[in-house]
Amino acid sequence: METHPALEALADPARLRLFARLVLGERIENAPRAQLVPLPHAGLVRRDGDGTLRARPSAFRTPGAEASGRLPAWVPPHLAGHFRAGRLGSVPAKQRTRAELLTRLAEAEFRPGRAYTEDEVSETLARYSGDPSALRRYCVEYRVLTRERDGSGYRLGEAGTRAAYASPAA
Question: Which segments constitute the DUF2087 domain (predicted)?
Fold first, then answer.
């Protein structure tokens, strides 16, 4: 039986205390990375545009919704087979299908013209995959997201439109 990611994240007492502090509205400046990282991955915390951490107690409104297999609204039926328990179980092998999936994900999660930090991108992608770094690399490879030369940020890329279900950059 698979445990809900929110329950796994809150099983650690230090993480539970950190989440409680965020729920109570406390501003957290320097939380240890090991305590913080699992919370956004489980959908319990989000980072605002200014970097402020905010609790998402709404993750508990429909307990087990992801575990019940509910797909994100942006996933069309022909891509549903790549999801398990509401998360990406496999990355499509066919380049065109992979490009479509990455493009749809980026359109659903990232706004045009806004810059995102690597942590923001990773936190967002972690809601869909246990390996957000690989998913982030695919997004850059397929030009769905562009990465600043100095590595300081990411933006929705030129291929972040439905017209661009193409193969990766050479």
Answer: 87-155
